[in-house]
Amino acid sequence: MMNKNVETFIGADSTYEDAKMVIFGAPFDATTSFRPGTRFGSKAIRSDSFGIETYSPYQDLDLLDTAVFDAGDLELAFGSPEKALAQIEEMTTEILRHGKMPIMLGGEHLVSLAMARALVKQYPDLAIVHFDAHADLRDDYLGEKLSHACVMRRIWELVGDDRIFQFGIRSGDRTEFVWGKDHVQTQKFNFDHLTETVQALGNRPIYVTLDLDILDPSIFPGTGTPEAGGVTFNEILAALMHLKPLHVVAFDLNELSPVYDQSGVSTAVACKLLREMILLWAFH
User: What is the DSSP string of 34-91?
Assistant: First the structure.
């Protein structure tokens, strides 16, 4: 007897009822400022995930021992950022209502605003750990406030000062850095002071948002806005490992644009990072 063919991320074989974590895709890239294509990121991650193992030698843990459900991709309103954000927020809220951890695969980074909107309603003292090449703190981009270049500024409007902690930032308009000094904590270029940040965050609820263009384009060319001077795979993995003690309530992985890396290496990197992030918090 044949079974229905449903593509999921490797190891995400739990039922929704039994799952502790729920993966969903937000394939939206309508405000991308340079090269589009991140709408295909989540599908590529699922498809290529079967090129890696469920077992992590980094953590001595296995996805087969977790309870993760893959809900597939949302069908988003591409012509309307606000409608798309509302759909993502609704999905996140539903997952939270059932006591499960949402894991979102972008898509461009604007999708993180929708998840933050849902999270803040349940966790008013939410803090955000943000890994990225770009500050994303513009008040608007070419007159548009809903842009992936503005996503952290919009999230700041939800959470306020000293609740956003940025690492690896190496690009942005001058006004972003000037404004950011008074409102967010930004570590340029690397992960210095990450240990102190983790200690200061304590047990408060944390949303981890990872823009994959934090990686150097020599490692990760498959992204819409590549920036030279990024970190290595081992460096971002070590930084994520530092976050293991935190009370992480949701996380995302954004800005894979597989069309710009026909080798598939960028997608393989994204798959491996997703596996490690799931295993970091699946057993809390």
Answer: S---GGGHHHHHHHHGGGS-SEETTTTEEGGGS-EEEEEE----TT-HHHHHHHHHHH
Q: Which of 96, 99, 102, 98 is nearest to 26 (CA)?
A: 102
Q: What is the CATH number of domain 21-281?
A: 3.40.800.10
What is the rounded average pLDDT for all residues in the chain? 96
Mean pLDDT, range 218-235, rounded to an integer = 97
CA distance 248 to 206: 5
pLDDT above 80 (res 46): yes
| Residue ranges per structural domain of the chain | 21-281
How far is CA 196 from each of CA 183, 193, 206, 207, 284, rounded to the nearest angstrom?
18, 5, 15, 17, 21
Tally DSSP H helices, then E strands, for the chain. Answer: 8, 10
Contact (CB, 8 A) for 134 and 53: no
Would you say 51 and 43 are in contact if contact means Cβ atoms under 8 Å apart? no
H or E element that contains 128: strand 127-131
Res. 2: pLDDT tops 60: no
